[in-house]
Amino acid sequence: MRRSSTLVSRWTARTLLAALMLPTLMAAQSVAQPVAASASGQLTTTKSRTIGLLAAVGDEFQYVRLKQSVGSNLDPYTRSTISVPDQGLNKMVLRGLDRAVAAQYPDAEIVMMTLAPDSPMTEILPHERETHTMSRVKALLQTYPGRERWDEVMVVTPKWLRTDREGMGTKLSGIGLYVQPLGANREVVVGADGVMDDEIRDIGQNKRDRSNTYVAPFFYIQMTVLDAKTLEVLRTEARYDFRKLINSDSTALDVAKSITPERLSIEIEKFVESAARRLVVDKEGSVDIGPVKKMPAPVQK
Asked: Global pTM?
């Protein structure tokens, strides 16, 4: 994989860059400026409990598109990486985390941080990126001023998945966009919640539909909760979230061109924020922040 958009059509690259720049510009207005790895943290008003939120998803937005049928030994996807400036991806994640933690734990004091990217992640093997990023996270926190007063730190890093998942492409990681431009005769799988795995959100008609072609922002990350004082890992959770989209109002033959850059910007931003928020509020596999409650011993019969 190369750190460029040369594998993507000019229209697609321009669309993605325009879409990604809007959330970046909006971030400065909707989030108190998070700190880079070399700066001190910003705190909210003084409260009883302190929770650190550290976004370390990097600046690489992954673009993956399914190609026409190719040989069995060739990668069936077009892949490219677009660099998002000003830590735009980290800021989107922080907004979702901040809102969720503030809503569920209103008495908490929140420290918001971002980890500035270093060398291009494309120079590091995918399965080694998690370890590399977490080592930088712990190096940052080791000398972070005031950390001894905190209780826990929630760290969000990219998570690489080699296999495909419910109609998404293979080898996805972090935050990106998957394009399924070709109809595929896949078996429809209905989950325990009664939702079909190929259920699509039609932004044109504002309803749910079914389609074999779609664009899908994805959020493949790992949440790691650290003890703020010792930096020991308390718990981890891997998430592979995505949102499949179509626009039935569009006449474009290519599904990737059916959504305008402005609308794609809104959809990506809303999706990333909601996916980050679910890290805190989801009941199943949720990250519970707060003191451990001791349950009374069972009554002996």
From this structure: 0.76
